[in-house]
Amino acid sequence: MTLSTTEKLYYQLHHCSNLLQRIHHSPTNVLKGKELHRGQGRTLRLLNQNDGISQHSLADLLDIRPSSMAELLTKLESSNLLERRQDETDRRVSNVFITENGRQLVEEIEQYRNKRAADLFAGVSAEDQTALAALLDKLIEALQVNAKAYIDDKPDQVRRSHHKPHREPKRPK
Fold first, then answer.
1. E strand or H helix that includes residue 98
2. What digits encode the pLDDT tens for the residues 124-146?
């Protein structure tokens, strides 16, 4: 059986995705002993960039439900990685601040990811990496448009994407 180019690409991307997930969750993770669960590292990274953001705005950035956001923040707060404070001007708003422990962990995560990314792409030239990044941008854009048909048909069967394009959140006043 001969695969078309698009079928081959689909299987290659699926295989890459599986390999990246296995590598990402490998037991050789430099963060051993620092129990981080899904989404916690990304939450801390966003807080490091947007310290003092409202809990609601953070949930929007992460594209998660407010109840899930509250649970995630409670876990990180209990680990002394962030703290929530009531907004001084609007008592209904809770602002989220990263702690020094959280900043240190973000730095460790970034160093780990940079090393892992360098290792993963060591056999690919800088020029090919640039070309691949441009092609993947086009693919992501096409997938975001085309995925709507599948997601709209079966919204309860499709997980919300945590790979939204980065946008600048509103800063607290």
1. strand 94-98
2. 999 999 999 999 999 999 888 88
For residue 57 the two structure tokens come to 């705005």
Q: Could you tell me the end-to-end alpha-carbon distance of the chain, in angstroms, rounded to an integer?
A: 61
| Distance of alpha carbon 59 from the chain centroid | 12
The per-residue DSSP string of 99-141 comes to -HHHHHHHHHHHHHHHHHHHHHTTTS-HHHHHHHHHHHHHHHH
Distance of alpha carbon 17 from alpha carbon 137, whole angstroms: 16
Instruction: Say how far residue 163 (Cα) sits from the centre of its chain.
Output: 6
pTM beyond 0.85: no
Tokens of 94: 């809770």
Q: DSSP character for 1?
A: -
